[in-house]
Structures are given as C-alpha cells and as structure tokens.
Amino acid sequence: MKSFSYINPTRILFGKGQIAAISKHIPESARVLVTYGGGSIKANGVYDQVMAALTGRSVMEFGGIEPNPRYETMMRAADVARAGKADFILAVGGGSVIDGSKFLAVALPYDGPDPWDLVTGKAKIRGAMSLGAVLTLPATGSESNCGAVITHQGLGAKVPFGHPSVYPVFAVLDPEATRSLPSRQVANGVADAFVHVMEQYLTVPAAGMVQDAYAEALLKTLIAVGPKTLADPDDMDARANLMWAANQALNGLISVGVPQDWSTHMIGHELTALYGLDHARSLTIVLPAMMRVRQEAKRAKLLQYAEHVWGVRGGAEDTRIGAAIERTEAFFRSLCLPVRLSDVHLKADVVAAVEANLIAHGMTALGEDKAVTPDVAKQVLTAAL
C-alpha cells in the first residue's frame, strides 16, 4: 500500500429531519444562492424545508440545472449570484446540481477571461466560495468529495475537475428526500455508485486490505439494496443504506493508498457528450466490456471480485472470471439498465466517434497502468456492441 494523506472536511448530517439543521452551519449574515434542478424539490417538500431553515438570511435562487450540468447554464447562475452578491451556495439536488455548483463556486472568485480554463487545467484554481449540499439523489458521492464533472455544450466536451476548496462544508443525507424519485433515477444511482467502487477496486493487488474489504462490502450492499429500493419505494431502511453506500463509494476513503482506474468513466463521458446517454447507463454498457477486454491485466482482482462479491469459487480461473462478469451484467439488467450499445440503439459508428473524441480530449493513456489507449477503447466499445 502506498503512502497517503487523507482528510474529508465535509460534515455529514444524516437522517430524517436533518434539513432543518443546516441553519446551524450557514452564517446568519450569509447571502445564500440556492441552486437546484428541474423543480422536483418544490413538489416533494424539500424546497419548503430548505427555505424554512434559511429564515432570516438573504436568499436568491437559480433553478434548471440539467443532468450533466452545462458550463453555459452555470455561467447564467454566476450572473444571478453576482447580481445578488451571494457569498454562500446551497446546492439542493443530485450529483449534477452539486457538480454544477462546485464549478460555480470556483468560477465566481475567478478573475480570468474564461472560467472553463479552471476545468481544463489551463488556469489554476486558487479558492472557492463556500457551499453546502442537500442531497436528493444518492449516486455520485459529490456531496462529500472534491471532484465534479462539467459539460461544455459548445465544445462537445465533458470534463472532470477537482480541488480541495470545493469540498462542501456540510451535506444533508435525508433518505426521506429520495422517496419521490422515479425508478429510472434510483436505478441510475445504484449503478453509478457501483461503478465508482469498481473504478477504485478492480485494478491490481496493492495490499490494501481495508480498502478492498470496504469496497467489497459496499458492492454487496448495493447489490442487496438496489433491487429492494426499486421493488418497495417505502422501504426506508433500503433507501438509507443506498444513500450511505453511494456516499461512501466516492468520499475518497477506499481509494487512498491504492491504484485507481477511471477508464470506464472517461469512455462513458464521451458517450454521454456525443449521444446524450444517462451517465450511469453509459457506465453499465462500458464496464462489462472493459472487464472482458482487460481480463489479463486485471486477472488477480477479477478473481478476488468473483469470490468475495459473487461467491464464485469453483472451476478454472477463466470460468470464474466469466461468471463474475455475467453476474455483473445480470445485476445491471435486474435494474432495467443497458449492458450493450445495441440496448440503447447505438451502432458500430459509435466506436470511431468516441475514439476520435478521446484523442481530441487528450484521453489517450487511461487506467491504473495507462494502458487504455484509444485502440483499447476501440476494442472495449466493439465488445460492447
């Protein structure tokens, strides 16, 4: 296991009724910009709870942040924030709202010509406006990590960025706030969290016994509670465990001291940017194909995954690996998620288009060993047809 330094400064406020507690963690003098998505928070009661908690503070709003938040949308949010002299951002929604708000938090104090440069790394992030989060969709873990992904519609690019200054000050995780979610969003959230774990776990052995055991526990939890949450929307124990597992999947803990992959995500980002696929659905298509194409490089961890997560112990190594991949696909299908490009009506021309975008965006040496070149990505996408 490699040396590491780990800190997660985000305060988690978990459980029913915790939205009211945000009043203790936002300065009374704050000028708060509340950001949200399509407006479902006004139908399910979350908006009213948030506004009650913000009583006495100056509050402004920006709604309409879309899935895969766009640079163009968040620049309009920046105009609202500047006009109201906001000094605190409260993101109320899922990972897209929180990711967009993180970009907003670094864009507002930036005095350079184009805040997109902060995403690409052309300009350095030197600080951010404080933000908090009220989570309504368990999926990305963005509520307590320092990363985000932003889409630039004009450039056809979907790019991740990260900086310690965008850790939320606090995050409310109230399972009751997820009760009204459509089944599609619940399924997407389960898959997103599952693949987050796999990107940090399915690499090469690194003697990270705690990280491996924790990752395996998260995967087994998601396998157990994902279908339960879909089958019984009122099962609050399942919802609570899903919410906590999705948070822990990407709060940085299971990645310390061990290699990370993320090639499935980078290829998935291009599928989303080009064809508008739900982020999670791009991942469930790419991951099984990636596991097959990269079987030799990941043999040891694939065998561990087969045994510790799926209980596959007998037979030849290739048989066990094949069974683990098939069970992964079956799990995704049980959530009504695609595992082939054909499942979402995409054809062979996708392969060249994604390969070209990966090259254009400098994604030419991905994976824990930098071995996922555009040619390997081409093999993965071909296997996913």
At the fold tier of CATH, the topology name of the largest domain is Dehydroquinate synthase-like, alpha domain
| Low-confidence parts | none
Q: Strand arrangement, largest sheet? A: 1-8-5-4-2-3
pLDDT averaged residue by residue: 97
Task: Report strand %.
Answer: 5-15%
Q: Describe the sheet with the most strands.
A: 6 strands, parallel
Termini distance?
37 Å
Number of helical elements: 14
From the coordinates shown, what is the CATH architecture of the largest domain?
Up-down Bundle
> What is the CATH class designation of the largest domain?
Mainly Alpha
The value of Rg in angstroms is 20 Å
**Helix content range of the residues, please?**
40-55%
Would you kindly provide a written description of the structure presented here, covering whatever features stand out?
This protein has 2 domains: 11-177, Rossmann fold (3-Layer(aba) Sandwich), CATH 3.40.50.1970; 183-383, Dehydroquinate synthase-like, alpha domain. The two termini are 37 Å apart. Helices cover 46% and strands 11% of the residues. With 385 residues, it is of the alpha/beta class. Helix 9 crosses helix 10. It is globular, with a radius of gyration of 20 Å. Strands 1-8-5-4-2-3 form a 6-stranded parallel sheet, with helices on both faces. The protein has a two-stranded antiparallel ribbon with strand order 6-7. The longest helix is centred in the middle third of the chain and has 23 residues, at 209-231.
